[in-house]
Amino acid sequence: MPRMQVYLPDDLYDELKERGLPASELLQEAVRAELRRQSLLDETDAYLTELIDEVGEPTPDEIARAEAIARRLALHATDRAS
Q1: What's the pTM value of the predicted model, to 2 decimals?
Q2: Domain assignment of residue 32, yes or no
Q3: Which of 13, 18, 40, 69 stands 20 to 30 A from 80 (CA)?
Q4: 46-to-14, 50, 57, 62 alpha-carbon distances in Å
């Protein structure tokens, strides 16, 4: 298995050790999560390109409507979390 050496700032290393946390496992999970996030962003970009090719670019009115809906959803989620 290939290995990589990773350096942490002293404060981060000290806190990991103080808490007895497994640095290697945490770093592996963080890298996997970031790779997954990047993959999902790539898939989203590909989907949006296909969608735009199929139906065309959204109009300014459609963009404004979508942004208004997104704001209402975010506000609703914030209200429910409170």
Answers
A1: 0.68
A2: yes
A3: 40
A4: 42, 6, 14, 20
